[in-house]
């Protein structure tokens, strides 16, 4: 008999994506959704698949995920975003690992995340393999990290699946730029709140390094113009984060500051 697993999803105005996500985890033993008061049909669609749909104000990427996982009733949790999908191959690997009378001896499982971007799967650069720890023993795990980047920390051995978690990243370039702008603002605020200092070298060199790492060292050029676009927008996001840190630091120190 397979060890039971809860699928835990955080969502907010994800009507275009949420059904695909829910369909991909419908085979699991429980689906728990925390919806941050969507104004579209996200919550309504979720209720077609589960009665465990909770509405809660947005707490941030880290705290919202801790909230949803703590609502799960099973020991094992698969944490998945509304714009993600469990691939058929990943489902097969999870089923094979969790079938049988004994629970796995790991505390968590990592998996690569494969992004769909501008009509193609992206297999190089900073976006792949983008390994995520998403399946874990709940009592041994906590969601940590600095906003907006959450990460699951477990207190035991971690295994790896080779099959991917699909990620439907952005509807279009406008949505991507809007997201990068929002994330860079959150990242800059987290940096300031942590009491970290602004350095001019970060603003000058980190964006260039991000482009070089993703496009050259990690082979982003192999994804053609899509790879170039990803590398350039990633460098832009890094620049905007540190520019916003500089802006906030200058405001705090006064016009004659940094």
Description:
With 258 residues, the protein is an alpha/beta fold. Helices cover 41% and strands 24% of the residues. α1 links the parallel β1 and β2. Strands 3-2-1-4-9-6-12 form a 7-stranded mixed sheet, with helices on both faces. Strands 5-13-7-8 form a 4-stranded mixed sheet. The protein folds into 2 domains: 164 residues, Spore Coat Polysaccharide Biosynthesis Protein SpsA, Chain A; 81 residues.
Secondary-structure-based class equals alpha/beta
What portion of residues belong to β-strands? 15-25%
Tally of separate helices: 7
Going by CATH, the homologous superfamily of the largest domain would be: Spore Coat Polysaccharide Biosynthesis Protein SpsA, Chain A
Shape: globular
| pLDDT averaged residue by residue | 94
And the CATH topology of the largest domain? Spore Coat Polysaccharide Biosynthesis Protein SpsA, Chain A
Largest sheet, spatial ordering of strands:
3-2-1-4-9-6-12
| Low-pLDDT runs | none
Number of domains: 2
Q: Would you list the SSEs in sequence order as H and E?
A: EHEHEHEEHEEEEEEEEHHH
Q: What Rg do the Cα atoms give?
A: 20 Å
Give the biggest beta sheet: 7 strands, mixed
Question: CATH class of the largest domain, please?
Answer: Alpha Beta
Spatial separation of the terminal alpha carbons? 63 Å
The CATH architecture of the largest domain can be given as: Alpha-Beta Complex
Helicity level: 40-55%
Number of strands: 13
């Amino acid at each position: 008999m397979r060890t039971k697993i809860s699928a835990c999803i955080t969502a907010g105005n994800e009507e275009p994506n949420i059904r695909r996500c829910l369909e991909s985890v419908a085979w699991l033993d429980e689906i728990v959704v925390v919806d941050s008061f969507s104004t579209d049909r996200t919550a309504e669609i979720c209720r077609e698949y589960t009665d465990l749909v909770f509405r809660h104000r947005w707490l941030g990427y880290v705290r919202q995920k801790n909230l949803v996982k703590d609502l799960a009733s099973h020991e094992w949790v698969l944490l998945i975003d509304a714009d993600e999908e469990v691939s058929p191959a990943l489902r097969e690997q999870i089923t094979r690992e969790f079938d049988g009378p004994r629970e796995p001896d790991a505390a968590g499982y990592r998996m690569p995340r494969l992004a769909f971007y501008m009509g193609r799967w992206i297999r190089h650069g900073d976006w792949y393999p983008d390994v995520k720890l998403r399946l874990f023993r709940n009592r041994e795990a906590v969601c940590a990290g600095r906003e907006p980047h959450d990460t699951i920390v477990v207190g035991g051995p971690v295994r790896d699946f080779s099959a991917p978690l699909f990620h439907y990243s952005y509807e279009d370039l406008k949505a991507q730029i809007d997201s990068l702008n929002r994330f860079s603002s959150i990242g800059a605020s987290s940096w300031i709140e942590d009491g970290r200092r602004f350095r001019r070298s970060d603003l000058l060199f980190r964006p260039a390094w991000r482009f070089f790492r993703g496009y050259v060292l990690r082979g982003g050029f192999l994804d053609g113009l899509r790879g170039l676009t990803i590398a350039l927008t990633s460098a832009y996001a890094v620049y905007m984060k540190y520019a916003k840190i500089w802006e906030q630091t200058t405001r705090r120190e006064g016009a004659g500051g940094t």
